[in-house]
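During the reporting period the student researcher (J.K.) took over the structure-prediction task from the postdoctoral fellow and processed the backlog of single-chain submissions. One of the processed entries is reproduced below for the supervisory committee.
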Amino acid sequence: MDSPACSGPADRSASTRRLAGMMAAYRRHRFAALFATLLLTLGAGSTLEALAPRHNALQLLVALNLLAAVASVAHEGDMRRPLLLGIAYLVTRGLLATLGIPGMLAVSEALWATAIVLAMVTAVRHAFGRGVVDGERILAALDGYLLAGLLFGFAYLMVDRMWPSSFGGTTPGELDTGRAIYFSFVTIATLGYGDVVPTSPPARGLAIVEGVSGQMYLTVLVARLVSLYSQERDD
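J.K. obtained the following structure tokens:
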């Protein structure tokens, strides 16, 4: 029989190999994982928030988006910067939840926005870069689009804080996180339901920028993917 001293290193080596295999598999599908967390947040976040308002389900899903975004950025070169952003975000949210330190909310939101911007840039760069048009490239392009919608939702929240009552419409209530994200994706998709509308000049200007840039992104993306696919067939 093998002694524990002999089997221990072998077990650790096998565990290390399994962990390395899992990390490699995640790196190959990191944009798919980010896309799944984004869809979960957008599709179920507001519903879970309404069903369990005490648990801050939407905020937890937004934090999950941050973790997935940090993981997708960490693969691109230096890991320290995105990891520090993620750790700092968790620390500031913990201080806010336990001690209620003033200013922690603004700091945590700034850290979240920075990490999401890095993830969006990484996803768009991967989508528009050279290479084979595969599922990960398409999902990276979709990630960039969805992350832009989240960022604009965050921007609408900031506008409403700086210029109160910047949003009105047929649906009563203040602009919270769920309503801001909802309005952002209604705008970027140019649906224009009209239940939430921008009323202040900064809010209207931001809505115009989002609507136009969203359509331009889709147009340029399709052209780029078609060009890459044509080059791939010619080669």
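The committee noted the following: The helical segments are 4-28, 30-51, 57-74, 80-98, 104-128, 135-162, 177-188, 201-234.
J.K. will present the remaining backlog at the next meeting.
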